[in-house]
Specification:
single chain, 266 residues, two-stranded antiparallel sheet, 75% helix, 2% strand, globular
């Protein structure tokens, strides 16, 4: 057991090293993607600063500091997920083109092999941006500890939701459009705005199929006012998404390996 864990850890570290070096090969493009992503995210913060200035620094009980924490947690979590597990963005393509075979025949954990096979360079900009915003928002050791914790839980949720949506390719074929809409139009957007501005039916979605509440809204509430029960709910939601991801990935791989998935092997 321990040997397997150690081998997987060594494999992950080597994969990260090679993918990062490959991404760094074109230095100008490498740094340009990072800088433009930081600038892109920065405009949203300027927008919110203007909105709060107009509304006396309060929107339905939400403060500008709450927005800072939201924009510190979500981009950082997104950044970590896509820097170190960027290969998941290619999972659907691997499935529908039969390219997953190359990973199946290797004596490595298939999920870790795929997930760590690519680094999304622009995500470094998201991580840098998130950490920079956190430097302005954090004012105590407690807030720092909770921030690190929620970046971790947010990263796990990004990885889980990405895997679940991409694995749909096993059953429906091309799921990349669905994945793009889910992550960018739903998960990230819902996580980037105060919960109080959404209607009830949208909030139901945010607490179920799109875990925006557990990724951003509840963490911000916990940073403002710690509640052990609410923290437990966040942890339980993360565990549920992990178990669901494992279940779907295993079932999907069994279908893929049997050759019965849509569009598999040509």
């Amino acid at each position: 057991m321990l040997t397997e864990v150690r081998n997987n850890l060594n494999f992950i570290l080597k994969n990260w090293k090679y993918t990062f070096l490959a991404s760094f090969e074109y230095k100008k493009s490498f740094f340009a993607q990072i800088i433009f992503m930081i600038i892109n995210n920065g405009f949203f913060l300027i927008f919110w600063q203007t909105v709060f200035a107009i509304n006396d620094n309060q929107i339905n009980g939400f403060s500008y500091k709450d927005i800072l924490f939201m924009w510190a947690i979500v981009p950082a979590a997104y950044g970590v997920a896509n820097i170190f597990f960027g290969g998941l963005n290619e999972l659907n393509r691997y499935i529908i083109n039969g390219e997953l075979d190359a990973f199946c025949i290797q004596p490595k954990n298939i999920f870790l092999n795929v997930a760590t096979s690519k680094c999304i360079v622009s995500a470094i900009g998201d991580l840098v941006y998130g950490v920079a915003v956190a430097c302005f928002a954090i004012s105590s050791i407690r807030e720092l500890a909770l921030y690190i914790l929620f970046v971790f839980t947010g990263t796990v949720l990004f990885i889980c939701t990405k895997t679940i949506i991409m694995m749909l390719g096993i059953w429906i074929g091309d799921a990349e459009t669905i994945a793009h809409i889910y992550e960018n139009n739903l998960l990230i957007n819902f996580s980037s705005y105060p919960e109080s501005i959404f209607k009830t039916w949208v909030r139901v979605i945010m607490y179920t199929v799109v875990p925006a509440a557990y990724m951003a809204h509840m963490p911000v509430s916990l940073i403002n006012s710690f509640d052990i029960k609410m923290l437990g709910i966040v942890f339980i939601s993360v565990v549920v998404y992990i178990l669901l991801t494992v279940l779907i990935f295993k079932k999907g791989m069994k279908r893929y390996e049997s050759g019965s998935g849509i569009g598999l092997r040509g």
